[in-house]
Amino acid sequence: MPRRGTPVPGGPRRAHVTSAASVRQSVPACGQPARPSPTTWQHGGVTAATHSSLFPQVPDSADAVLEGLDPEQREVATSLHGPVCVLAGAGTGKTRAITHRIAYGVRAGILQPSSVLAVTFTARAAGEMRGRLRQLGAQGVQARTFHSAALRQLQYFWPKAIGGSLPRLIDRKVQLVADAAAACRIRLDRGELRDVTAEIEWSKVTQTVPADYPRAAAQAGRETPRDPAEIAQLYSAYEDLKRDRAVIDFEDVLLLTVAVLQDRQDIAEQVRSQYQHFVVDEYQDVSPLQQRLLELWLGDRDTLCVVGDASQTIYSFTGATPDHLLDFRTRHPGATVVKLVRDYRSTPQVVHLANGLLAQARGRAADHRLELVSQRSPGPEPVYAEYADEPAEAEGAARRIRDLLDSGVPASEIAVLFRTNGQSETYEQALADAGIPYQLRGAERFFDRPEVRKAGIALRGAARFGGNDSALEDAVDLPSQVRAVLSGEGWTPQPPAGSGAVRERWESLAALVNLAQDFAAAKPDATLADLVAELDERAGAQHAPTVQGVTLASLHSAKGLEWDAVFLVGVAEGMMPITYARTDEQIEEERRLLYVGVTRARERLHVSWALSRAPGGRPNRRPSRFLDGLRPGSGTAAGRSPAGAGGGIERGPAGTPTASAPAVPRRTQRAPARCRVCGRTLTDAGELKLLRCEDCPSDMDEGLYERLRSWRAVQARRSGQPAFCVFTDKTLMAIAETVPEEPGELARIPGVGVRKLNRYGTDVLALCAGQDLGGEDEAD
C-alpha cells in the first residue's frame, strides 16, 4: 500500500509530461467551528467559520455533526455519493460544509478515513482542514496541498517506477534561472530574473514545453518580460541545468507524478485502491496540470466533491483557471450542484458593496457570480477617504486604527490590505510611528519561528522535569506555569517599546501565553503535558494561535482570511486595476481581487486612495473605476443580475447527458410554510417535512408507514448506505400522512426531490396505492 499521501493527476501528452522511460534517462538517480448551542440554523446556529470557540467539544454522533448547518450546507454534508459541485460565495461557510461532509461520512460509517483525500492549495488551508476534522472526530483523513500529496506519492513509488532515490528538490529556482541566463549569455536584471522565473513556472503548470512557449504565450495574451524566443531559450537551458545537477523543482513534482501514473498502470491502480473519495477545495484555482493529475487519480470513478467560486479566481497568472469549475456539469452531467450564498461573515453593508462590485463585472466568471445574502445584523457603512499623497493616506489609516484599538477592537482583528508588497513599507512606518504593533502576512510560519521552537523545547522540558524547577514553585495553574517558563525565553507581562524583531518575538511568545489561557479555560484539568501535546498537534496541522498585531498583507495573500476591520488602501487607477492590466480579462481579474479584499471584512470597511504618490506631487490620480457608482458622489452603477446568481440545490439525474452545464435556476422567495392543522408558521426542519407541528394530531396511515420502513430497509441494504440516506423517518411519515397518488404530489413532499423521485418514485407510489411489490419487502 502507498504511504498516506495524495495522488494528484496530470496533463496531456503534448505538454511537458515525460514518460517514465524518459524520466529514467533525463533525471539520474541520486542521493473551528464550534458546535453551536442552538439546535437549528435559523436561530443563529450557523456562525462564521473562523469565529468559533477555540476548543469545541467533539460531536457525540454522526447526526450531531449536522447540527447547526443551514439547508444548503446540510445538503453538501449528506451528498456523499456521486459527483458534487459546491459553488460557495465568500463567507458562506464552505470549509465548514466540506469538513462536516467528510466528518459526517466518517462518523456514519459511510467513508473510511484512510480512503478520503482532501486537497487544497496552501499548507495553511490544509492545516486548518486537518484541525477541523480532528475537532469533529474524523482523524485519519488526509488533507494536503497538491504538491505535498504528489511529493509523498513520488517519494514512495520512485524506487519502484524509476529506480534509485528521488532527485533533490530545490526550494527556489531563481538562482538556477540566473545560471541558465549566464550559460545563454543573456543579461537579466533582478526584476527580469523574477519575471522570467514566473514565465517558466507558468509554462510548466500549463504543460508547455520550451519550443512551444512563444506560441502559447501569444495565445494566452501574456505580457512577456523579454522576447518570447529568448525566454524559450532560457527555459530550455534551465531544464538542461536541472538534469545536469540531478535536481527537480516544485512543478516537476506534479509532472513526474503524472508521468508515473500515466506509464505505470499497476502504480495508478495501487493509488486508486488507497483513495476512493476526493474533495478539492478552491477548485477555481486548479491549473491544467493539477486537473490532469486529479483525473489520473480518479480513474473512471466519480467519487469527487469540488468546491469553489469563480468570482474569487485571482491567480490566473500562475496558470489557474475557473473553467474546470464552470465546466463541471458538462463533464459530470449527473452531478449534484449546491450553491452557498448565505454570508455569515460580513454585515449587509459590506455584502452590498461586494455584490455591487460584481454586478458591473463582465466575462464568463461574472456570468456565474453568486449574489450573497448577509445573515448578520446591520453594521456601519463602508468609509471612503481621499488623501493628498500616500504618506498622508498611511497616517490617516494609522489614526483610524488607533481609534479602533482605543474602542476595544483587538489588533489581531484589523488588517491593512494593499495591491503590491511594495506598498507595505509606508504603512509599516506609519504604524510604528503611532506605536501600533503589526505583523507582515507571508512571513515565516508561526511554528517555524526560532523563538517558538525554543519555547516549545522549554515547555516540553518543564512538562517532564518541572517538579525540580524552582521557577514553577509558585505557579498554581497551567497559565501561570506557561508564563513562568516563557519568562525565561523573553516573555514579559508588558510588551517592549517600539516595533521590529524584538516586538515580533514578544508577540509570538504572547500568543503561546494566550493559547495556554484559552486551553485551560476549555479544559480546567489540563496539565502542561496536555498543552505540549496540543502544541505538537497544532504544529503538525500548522494551526497557529493568534498573534496580537495589525496584519499588513497584499490582497493576494489575504485570500481565505478575515478580520473585523479591513483597510483597503491605494484603491486608485494605476494600482487597482494595476497599470499592466490591459486586456478585458486582466481588468476583470483585478476587479475580482478587489472583491476578495472587500469580503475579508466582517464589520468595518475603510476604502482609501491618494491623489499623488509623494508629498508635493501632482494630484493626477483618481479613485479606481471599480468604485464608480458605488462610492458616494460617483453616479449610479449599471449593474446586472446574471442567471443563477441565487443559492440553492440542483441534482442532475444520473445518466442524463447534456450538451452544456445548465444554469441553476434562481430561487424565488417562498411564502412562509404553515402547519396544515393549526396554521402556525413552521421553522423547524422536521416540522417543515411533515408540514405540521410536531404536537398537532397526525392522520398517518400506520400500515403504509410500516410498509415504507420495510421497503426502505431493503433499499438501504442494496445500496450499502444507512436507511436515512434513502428517506428519513420524517419523510416517510409525511408520505404516509399525504398518501400521494401521482408523481407531482410525491415530489412536493420535502425530502423527496427530483433525484429520489426518479429512483424510488415508482415503488413508493405503488406502496401508497396498496400494491404488493412482490418480495421487495424481503431481504435478498
Task: Explain this structure.
This is ATP-dependent DNA helicase UvrD2. InterPro entries: DExx_box_DNA_helicase_dom_sf, DNA_helicase_UvrD-like_C, DNA_helicase_UvrD/REP, HRDC-like_sf, HRDC_dom, HRDC_dom_sf, P-loop_NTPase, UvrD-like_ATP-bd. ATP binds at residues 88-95. Its cofactor is Mg(2+). The protein is of the alpha/beta class. It folds into five domains: 62-150 and 255-340, P-loop containing nucleotide triphosphate hydrolases (Rossmann fold, 3-Layer(aba) Sandwich); 171-248; 383-444 and 549-627, P-loop containing nucleotide triphosphate hydrolases (Rossmann fold, 3-Layer(aba) Sandwich), CATH 3.40.50; 450-541, no CATH class; 687-769, HRDC domain (DNA polymerase, domain 1), CATH 1.10.150. The chain is 43% helix and 10% strand. The chain has 29 helices and 17 strands. The longest helix is centred in the middle third of the chain and has 22 residues, at 501-522. The model is unreliable at 1-53, 654-671 and 776-780 (pLDDT under 50).
